[in-house]
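seq as requested:
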Amino acid sequence: MKNTLEYIKKNRDRYIEELFELLKIPSISADSAYKQEVLKCADKVADYLRKSGVDQVEICQTKGHPVVYGEKIIDTSFPTVLMYGHYDVQPPDPLGLWDRPPFEPYIKKTPIHPGGAIFARGSADDKGQFFMHIKAFEAMSATGELPCNIKFIIEGEEEIGSVSLGDFLTKNEEKLACDCVLVSDTHIYSLDQPTITTGLRGLSYMEIEVEGPNRDLHSGLYGGAVPNPINILCKIIAELKDENGRITVDGFYDNVEVVSDEERKEMNKLKDDPKKYKKAIGLKALEGERGYTTLERTSIRPALDCNGIWGGYTGEGAKTVIPSKAFAKISMRLVPNQTEGEVVDKFTKYIKKIAPASVKVKVKPMHGGLPYVLPVTTKEYLSAKKAMERSFNKGVLPYRSGGSIPITSLFEKILGVKVVLMGLGLDTDALHSPNEHFGLYNYFKGIETIPLFFKYYTSEDV
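struct tokens:
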């Protein structure tokens, strides 16, 4: 891999410039106003794949945004690794909290990234991370050090639940056949303690609508005599957790995986620092399910949060109304043995159970996905561990993340292979928030580590 690492070093500036071009495209999948920008980004990704040396590249249409596919088959008898990423990004709102426009990338030094970080929407999630794979592949291909076949699948709907990808996988099972899937859409615990993500929580995303009177009413004429949907919705949300931080939905914990004391002890070797954690996000106190550490609450335990709430008048000044309707968006993070369908059913029944008869309530499932766990005894995990330990020159620990990548469990189910979650971001990179960024050190460390994974995965020594 010596020639590959020298090639990466030689092309460092170009690798940054090309990522900048990708980050300038506002490929926001959730907003139809950006449809053409999403298509433009797919074209750009395909172009970069071709320039990197991928033989066969195609933009595959779906019911939603397209999937960019590419492959380099050097010998059909060799193992094949499928690299997955997504080119769509979260909306940048609220724009006023960005230091600079979100689609005008720039580099700035920070206390955590003294060597500089790339600031832009999508820098860490996931353009910077999937681009590591394209650049690593380019280096391996250009130096003749590619040890196996490589396939790429880069989608445009991950931020809206990968709604078309399951169908795409099913229809293209033969095309996507591989020995393992490699994903960089997660983070390491810290630069001092690199980790490999061995677990992801699943997701169930819901919207609640509470309807009261048939129109907005004057709060002076009707206040105190009619149900207020906002008040009732707030009470419903408040009743979704008890004083111990447990979710109150009937039967919610019936199938939750019980993690052994031994595994809990192992995961807490990551040295959770509550003071540092609170300081990083500007809090004086933490909360959560009683009896669990912060690490455990955000990984091996399920969670429920209100992600948005609205209704009535929210403009400047005052308007004295009792609104006709109020809405809320709720996300639930799931752990092994929980399924989206089960949770949707229990959540819907519970909301209708606790809602008063004075209002009408609708519960609408939006999107979701299953949890995923990679055993630490597999060749896939051990190859990634060895690669990262060599590139970081430090010991690497397994780490369960609280986030969700809905397609991960589908890869294993449909393609019958394990998924390696070898992300290089940090949880301080402001994913989904203003001033998202990705450290230059992390970016190039990923590009250096990926070829090592291929080396060890294709060897007999792991």
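The longest strand covers residues 202-211.
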